[in-house]
Write a structure and sequence with these properties.
There is one protein chain. By secondary structure, this protein is mostly helical. The chain has a single domain (about 25-460), classed as Amino acid/polyamine transporter I (Up-down Bundle). It has helices at about 10-15, 30-40, 45-55, 60-85, 90-100, 100-135, 160-175, 175-200, 220-230, 235-240, 250-280, 290-295, 300-335, 355-370, 375-400, 415-430, 435-455. It starts with 8 loop residues before the first helix and ends in a 14-residue tail after the last helix. It is found in: Membrane.
Amino acid sequence: MDLFRKKSIQQLIQEVGQKDIKLKKELGAFDLSMLGIGAIIGTGIFVLTGVAAAEHAGPALILSFILSGLACVFAALCYAEFASTVPVSGSAYTYSYATFGELVAWILGWDLILEYGLASSAVASGWSGYFQGLLAGFGIHFPKAITSAYNPANGTYIDVPAILIVFIITMLLTQGVKKSARLNTIMVIIKLVVVVLFIAVGVWYVKPGNWTPFMPFGFSGVATGAATVFFAYIGFDAVSTAAEEVKNPQKNMPIGIIASLLVCTVLYILVSGILTGIVPYQQLGVKNPVAFALNYIHQDWVAGFISLGAIAGITTVLLVMIYGQTRLFYAISRDGLLPKVFSKVDKKKQTPMANSWITCILVSIFAGLVPLGRLAELVNIGTLFAFMTVSVGILYLRKNKQAPKTGFRVPFVPYIPILAFLFCGYLALQLPALSWISFAVWLVIGLFVYFGYGRRHSTLNSKGERMERVS
């Protein structure tokens, strides 16, 4: 059997029309942009900015966000062309099936399972912390044993609030993508108002002296900061997992991906500039840097709003991440590489019901029981790997003249895809060795799963299936 057998773009699009597994097309460009902003603005801006400034970049955090943003803009253009060309669920996994073949597609899919699954768990834990902080302000406290992940030395055994929010989000997602998108839009508007409020209030308290020295850790600190805050950008790729549920995907997918990324990049640069201008960077190593900065200038009433916005923000990130995970499982299962239960769609709701609840249980286990201290770095390396593969995929598409002339096309090929590959590769090299080792172990486990199950159950083994083989 050929490890690099492919599905043509036409084949992938034809499979979408199969009646027993069809998803409902309900999303437009605005819905997609809101999904993207919902996935991007959250843990990164409300949590990671402080640590990145205090430990890595200092006031040059602005440059870290620009560096990460550039890597993402280049990669986003590549994603936009693929999403327009192959409007099928599965994101980078599906694109790789059409360009590099089954084995590479499986590796990408397995990599994205790590990204979405562990990111969902980490975000649920972050949500739990903010939610408990909000309740504490009203004098409400949970028993300590159920407030955080398993750590007997600290007296905690399970994070019940994290598990509850995962179940609530899953219940919402199983009601249909349009209802989920509406709630997401409301929460995105709340957190955008909160971010703009921080900018409007904070700009008057900026002391330019706090920006000196601008680059206390040198450019290597800026680069490490960029690799750290890269977690703040992951999410725009989750927009591409919605491809099968989009009206006019050739037009709307590129708009949703690029618009959401540009809005978030501008807001990140403004917030990081104001944050380091208000508070000396050495004091920003806290879990809630934005609220901390407002307390620092005695704007406590705004800080309360910021906490509420953070909860809304983190909720939307969790919603989009779990959504992306279910659609990824759906796409891989439809190709036979995972059990068929993941691609069964409820006839009434037109959502993958069993898949959603299995995802819920898996995410809940990690969020409730496992302390995920270095998770952001592990999620980052998986995302950067996916971005690099998609960038190379555009070069492959153009060389083999597979891409149709209609829809969105990346400008300045081959330069933009090469820049995307180099920027992402550079950021990946800034991550610690432990992240690389953990990532390698995960990929080895994935190869065992593929050769033990996926290779034998692949739909391309069926008689009569069209196969394209690498010569």
